[in-house]
Amino acid sequence: MFEGILIGLGTAFTPINLLMVVGGCLIGTFIGMLPGLGPMSIIAIMIPVAISIGDPSAALILLAGVYYGAIFGGSTSSILINAPGVASTVATSFDGYPLARQGKAGKALTVAAIASFSGGTLGAILLMIFAPMLVSVALLFHSAEYFALMVVGLSAIAAFAGSGQVGKAVLMTITGLVMATVGEGALFNLPRFTMGVMDLQSGFSFITLAMAMFALPEAIYLVLDPGRSNTGQSGSGQITDLRITRDEARRITPVIGRQSVQGFLIGVLPGAGATIASFLGYAVERNIAKGEDQAEFGKGSVKGLAAPESANNAACTGSFVPLLTLGIPGSGTTAILLGALIALNVSPGPRLMVDQPEIFWSVIISMYLGNVILLALNLPLIPYIAKVLAIPRNYLIPFILFFTLMGAYIGQNNATELLILVGLGIAATVLRFADYPLAPLLIGFILGSMLEDNFSRSMQLYNGIGFIAERPMTLGLLVLAVILVVLPGYRARRARLRAEGVADGD
């Protein structure tokens, strides 16, 4: 390992590779800030540029920089305008946007930057130390385990339900699962529930649904409630409160540590990725929080912001384990990276560390550099980025609508998406008026297709649901899912009984 680190240092610190790190981080951060243009799109566009470089190490360092740069910068639109254009930053908006509306946009962006940097850096350290042995762990997960892992992800709905909203959260999750079934099925390549609309044959677009659930209703709310645009900024547009207090630093430090490790381990699993890591990170921290900390979740909690940001960046780093050591893409983005590796005549797999150590180790070392560069780029720019919230309401509403409509259109390059966006956006606004949580719907939609694919595959392999009993790891994950669903209700009941006991004593 030490020989590999020395080889990686020698390769990563060449002038061309340093330029690739900086360029990849800049491009990725800028693209990540724009709703609708996720890392998949920009990496696909950058592949011809990477191939033209010729050097596989430099090309992969550039593409990797774009990838984790986009994840790093993706929190900006989620925090400032409640428009998560990337699935892994949806959970960031749950507490990041409320903080921005409280006049703490600078603080929210600072927490996100520090959590992203810490998660990415800790992930790179874990990748360097444990990559060889984690290969064997990843190979233990088959379709049955991935199905159970998706169920664990769905069990997080309890964390996104407010007081007395568990029933509503379950209903919204089921709605998301139903929407995930639109389009071609897992077993048969036949369209389902498309109602004869050809544009629905591939199902609903995540970008369109995310914009409809969060960004479009926010624009409608700004029209209906002019005071909503008052984020507490001064009339001059001066952004204050950029620093985090010592108490806030003390509160988020253990959160960042836990979720960096958990996010990295989830990222190691092929097919899991940063999205599940961010949702589970948020759910775990909300479930273990107590008292005032738990009450703040969903209303502007620094813990609720730090958890998904550290988890998704660590998972992004962890996704390189199956890609480089097994040649298995863990997500759509790493699938594109795999195609780029093949185009560069690089064969990812167990022999990569032995046959081409300069590629493997230079990518890991570049992740350290990339995270430092991202932090150095983003922190000084926070006062200027946060001034988006100082834009007058008359300009902010068209700004949100423009990025919402363009994000939906660019995602599918189809004008029908705009009609779907408007229809779903109106429905989401009505649901918000009725006090239905929208996050569970998006969770159900994101995990629904993966849940169906892995369940169908497991059913075929084991001729029924016997795989649950035959595979102890699957059973253990399902038990964990049940605990995650039952625990919040049990804790709420205990708190209620304790409060009643205190009242009786008084």
Write out key terms for the chains shown.
506 residues, mainly alpha, two-stranded antiparallel sheet
List the helices and strands and how they pair.
Elements: H1 2-12, H2 15-33, H3 39-53, H4 56-73, H5 75-81, H6 90-101, H7 105-139, H8 143-154, H9 166-180, E1 183-184, E2 191-192, H10 206-224, H11 246-268, H12 273-288, H13 291-296, H14 302-318, H15 320-325, H16 332-343, H17 352-355, H18 357-385, H19 393-412, H20 416-433, H21 439-462, H22 467-470, H23 472-505
Antiparallel strand pairs: 1-2
Helix pairs in contact: 1-18, 2-4, 2-18, 3-4, 3-16, 4-7, 4-14, 4-16, 4-18, 5-6, 5-7, 6-7, 6-14, 7-11, 7-14, 7-18, 8-21, 8-23, 9-21, 10-19, 10-20, 10-21, 11-12, 11-14, 12-14, 19-20
Average pLDDT score: 78
Total number of strands:
2
Helix content: over 70%
Strands side by side in the biggest sheet: 1-2
How many separate domains? 1
Structural class: mainly alpha
Q: What is the CA-based Rg, rounded?
A: 22 Å
Oligomer: single chain
Question: What low-confidence regions span 5 or more consecutive residues with pLDDT below 50?
Answer: 229-238
Estimate the global geometry from the Cα principal axes.
globular
Description of the molecule:
The protein has 506 residues and is an all-alpha fold. It has one domain (2-142, 205-231, 240-439). Helices cover 74% and strands 1% of the residues. It has 23 helices and two strands. The protein has helices at residues 2-12, 15-33, 39-53, 56-73, 75-81, 90-101, 105-139, 143-154, 166-180, 206-224, 246-268, 273-288, 291-296, 302-318, 320-325, 332-343, 352-355, 357-385, 393-412, 416-433, 439-462, 467-470, 472-505; strands at 183-184, 191-192. Strands 1-2 form a two-stranded antiparallel sheet. A hairpin with a 6-residue loop joins β1 and β2. The radius of gyration is 22 Å and the shape is globular. Residues 229-238 have low confidence and may be disordered.
